[in-house]
């Protein structure tokens, strides 16, 4: 989000949101209202060095479809590229965090999420692993995915708190990463929404996300926002 917007208090942000909504169709505003009530940050995704555009884009699409708001992207050796034909615009509705400025981007990402209260769940076979049906969903948690060829790094596995795997019953040992993400998210978000856990966004989070959605829906929104801030100084 615009750094000038970040500095605004909640009341001023809501005024800006009302101003931006004046440029958004009624139909889209109704849709925003429906979707924002179903968004969650209780569960998030971490992608470590995922570089195949098709897989990267398919994961983003699944995150949007199952109501996740945040995706954390670690770029160590590989840059994260999105295929617009696969993502179908899903990236603009998500909040993407990229970690690529550290000597250890994996550790930077995981440490940051742990400080925010997230439990890190590595998606890799392990002797003490959970399944999508048994993984605890009561506290905030992040699913950590690696590349199909190499999997997660040793560092990522060492920093994980828990492990989850999808039971397999065939000759092939693993699913495509985008399929794995979709399977896990379908089961875990369904369990979460049927639990007593408070998984939705709070009012400040809703406002911030709606501001980003409104801006993504309006042509030259940066100019409209800049004009509003000039006329309504903090």
Provide a concise account of the structure shown.
The chain is α/β, with parallel strands linked by helices and 234 residues long.
Instruction: Provide the CATH topology of the largest domain.
Output: Alpha/beta knot
Structural class per helix/strand content?
Answer: alpha/beta
Q: Tally of extended strands?
A: 6
Q: What is the top-level CATH class of the largest domain?
A: Alpha Beta
**Number of structurally distinct domains:** 2
Radius of gyration: 19 Å
Give the ordered list of helices and strands. HHHEHEHEHEEHEHHH
**Order of strands in the sheet with the most strands?**
3-2-1-5-4-6
Q: What distance lies between the first and last C-alpha atoms, to the nearest angstrom?
A: 17 Å
- The name of the CATH superfamily of the largest domain reads SPOUT methyltransferase, trefoil knot domain
Helix content: 40-55%
**Most strands sheet:** 6 strands, parallel
Protein model, in words:
44% of the residues lie in helices and 12% in strands. The chain has helices at residues 3-6, 10-21, 26-36, 53-65, 84-87, 105-115, 154-159, 177-193, 203-217, 221-231; strands at 43-48, 70-74, 95-99, 119-122, 141-145, 162-163. It contains ten helices and six strands. The mean pLDDT is 90. The protein folds into two domains: 40-201, SPOUT methyltransferase, trefoil knot domain (Alpha/beta knot, 3-Layer(aba) Sandwich), CATH 3.40.1280.10; 202-234, no CATH class. It has a six-stranded parallel sheet with strand order 3-2-1-5-4-6, sandwiched between helices. It is an alpha/beta fold.
């Amino acid at each position: 989000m615009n750094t000038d917007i970040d500095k605004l208090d909640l009341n001023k942000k809501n005024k800006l949101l009302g101003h931006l909504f004046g440029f958004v169709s009624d139909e889209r505003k109704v849709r925003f209202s429906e979707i924002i009530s179903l968004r969650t940050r209780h569960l998030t995704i971490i992608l470590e060095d995922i570089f195949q555009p098709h897989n990267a884009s398919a994961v983003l699409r699944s995150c949007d479809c199952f109501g996740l708001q945040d995706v954390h992207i670690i770029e160590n050796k590989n840059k994260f590229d999105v295929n617009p034909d696969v993502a179908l615009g899903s990236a603009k509705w998500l909040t993407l965090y990229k970690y690529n400025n550290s000597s250890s981007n994996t550790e930077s990402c995981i440490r940051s999420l742990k400080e925010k209260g997230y439990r890190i769940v590595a998606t890799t076979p392990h002797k003490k692993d959970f399944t999508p049906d048994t993984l605890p969903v009561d506290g905030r948690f992040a699913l950590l995915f690696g590349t199909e060829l190499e999997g997660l790094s040793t560092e990522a596995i060492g920093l994980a708190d828990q492990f989850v795997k999808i039971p397999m019953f065939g000759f092939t040992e693993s699913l495509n990463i985008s399929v794995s993400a979709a399977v896990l998210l379908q089961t875990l978000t369904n369990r979460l929404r049927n639990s007593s856990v408070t998984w939705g966004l709070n009012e400040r989070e809703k406002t911030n996300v709606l501001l980003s959605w409104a801006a993504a829906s309006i042509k030259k929104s940066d100019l409209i926002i800049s004009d509003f801030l000039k006329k309504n100084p903090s």
